[in-house]
Design a protein that fits this description.
By secondary structure, the chain is mostly beta strands. It contains 5 helices and 31 strands. The longest helix is centred in the first third of the chain and has 13 residues, at 10-22. The protein binds copper (II) ion (CU). The site of copper (II) ion has 5 residues, from loops.
């Protein structure tokens, strides 16, 4: 059964201002008790996004085609929801590449509006970043061409057009981007995609009674993000995944617009985290729950070796402000198919010393002039302006960025800071070293209300203009974004 506590805590946490907005028009949105809610009730097999066909026959290069298109899907019996997808109705195929390969793609925009395609987490030349500076107008194509220069990691792709990101992602535009390398080949871990190496794109949605998505409905949604009351895994509600009685690797993506998820098993089963946003950790970390903010990823290993055939384990996803969902049932349905001896060490990891940084910058995330024209969400008191470069970074520099979530009683929200082009390391949270699972490579980091997080990164190569922004997509679209230019000195 789904356990629903729709908006509990959410409204309470908002205080007076939130309550005032919340009494406005939530519109005809399905909530508790509104039937029909459960389309599937754990009868649908978890769909696995297919691996996108590489159209290039050479080993050292790949070429992909993605068609951005409109579609529809029935999330509820008798209701049709208008959706967007890449090469399909909702979400997109998984792109898998190897470090060192030349990467070419053709992105065909079949929509009636502009889109872009951003490679989230990829280190790449600025002109192929796919941010708001690289629009793909309706009925046109975009042909990125660059070399993968990055270690194995679970990344993703999604649109990033100015002011349209949240809406287009909500309607279905997102997919996984997996990089493999010699280390991921060598490690004795599950790596059979779709069998024991399972991608889980976790998202939530709200629907109107008509069956259409209920995207931003009011100012409350804009300021706090759109929090759904239905949970999707790989685009479906309440799926079932059959696994072997052995180790299984889950590649978790919080692909929601603005939710922060606490993810755990109903039986408190422990798992081992092996990778963060940008690749493998130094060693597997035993955990029994993990928090992912919007845009973050984690790879975890779950060992079902001791589970009897037929055992069922539920994956629970808690919205930090909102509902708890039984998101996925995992059923051990066959004997072990691999004899993997999970490693105790994954890789050596060189932490960037704070002393290497020559430049320190501060970024204050806050709301300004609430409710007035030009007000809303900002970074350092400024809203995103495509005609303004906010920060100039010298090519080759190592920098410390201090990110401050200046929350107020009126506007108390977490943010999810994302930098394009680079993977960074978290130096500290409010002056304290981050927990072990946050000590690996990161491109997105949760900043709690009132918290200050310091990150460090090297801006190696590739001059040009990139974005930094809050990955709560309603915040990003409201202007909580800026541009940094990597310049040759
Ligand atoms: Cu934010």
């Amino acid at each position: 059964m789904k356990r629903r506590t729709f908006m509990t805590g959410g409204i309470a946490a908002l205080g007076l201002a939130g309550a005032a907005w919340a009494t406005g028009s939530f519109g005809p949105i399905f909530t508790d008790g509104a039937a029909p809610l459960s389309a599937n009730s754990f009868s649908t097999a978890l769909p696995i996004p297919p691996l996108l066909e590489d159209l290039d026959s050479a080993a050292d290069s790949v070429r992909f085609v993605l068609q951005v298109q409109q579609g529809s899907r029935s999330f509820f019996p008798g209701k049709t929801t208008r959706t967007l997808g890449y090469n399909g109705n909702f979400l997109g195929p998984t792109i898998r590449v190897r470090n060192g390969q030349r990467f070419r793609a053709e992105i065909k925009n079949g929509l009636s509006q502009t889109t872009t395609l951003h490679w989230h987490g990829l280190h790449l030349p600025a002109k192929w970043d796919g941010g708001p500076l690289q629009p793909i107008p309706a009925d046109s194509s975009w042909n990125p061409d660059f070399t993968i220069k990055q270690q194995a990691a679970t990344l993703w792709y999604h649109p990033h057009a100015m002011g349209l990101t949240g809406d287009q992602v909500y309607r279905g535009l997102a997919g996984l981007f997996i990089i493999e390398d010699e280390l991921s080949d060598r490690l004795d871990i599950p790596k059979d995609y779709g069998k024991d190496d399972i991608p889980l794109i976790i998202q939530d949605r709200r629907f109107l009674k008509s069956g259409q998505f209920a995207y931003v409905q009011n100012m409350h949604d804009q300021m706090n993000g759109v929090i759904g009351n239905h949970l999707l895994i790989n685009g479906v509600m309440q799926p079932v995944l059959g696994v072997h009685a052995g180790p299984v690797r889950l590649r978790l993506l919080n692909g929601s617009n603005s939710s922060i998820y606490k993810i755990a098993f109903a039986n408190q089963q422990s798992f081992r985290m092996i990778a963060s946003d940008g690749g493998f950790l130094e060693r597997p970390l035993a955990m029994n729950r993990i928090v992912l903010s919007a845009g973050e990823r984690a790879e975890v290993l779950v060992d079902f070796s001791a589970a009897p055939i037929g055992q069922q384990v539920s994956l629970l996803v808690d919205q930090v402000r909102g509902s708890r969902f039984e998101a996925l049932r995992i059923q051990v349905d066959r004997p072990a198919e691999t004899a993997i001896k999970l490693p105790t060490r994954l890789r050596s990891f060189d932490r960037i010393p704070a002393t290497e940084a020559t430049v320190k910058r501060s970024f204050v995330l806050e709301s300004i002039g609430m409710g007035i024209v030009g007000g809303g969400l900002s970074i350092n008191g400024k809203k995103m302006d495509l005609n303004r470069i906010d920060e100039r970074v010298k090519l080759g520099a190592t920098e410390i960025w201090e990110i401050i979530n200046r929350s107020t009683i009126m506007m108390r929200t977490s943010h999810s800071m994302h930098l394009h082009d680079v993977q960074f390391q978290i130096l500290d949270r409010d002056g304290k070293a981050p927990p072990a699972h946050e000590q690996g490579r990161k491109d997105t980091v949760l900043i709690a209300p009132g918290e200050t997080v310091r990150i460090i990164t090297r801006f190696h190569d590739d001059p040009g203009v990139y974005m930094y922004h809050c990955h709560l997509l309603e915040h990003e679209d409201d202007g909580m974004m800026g541009q940094f230019e990597v310049v040759e000195s």
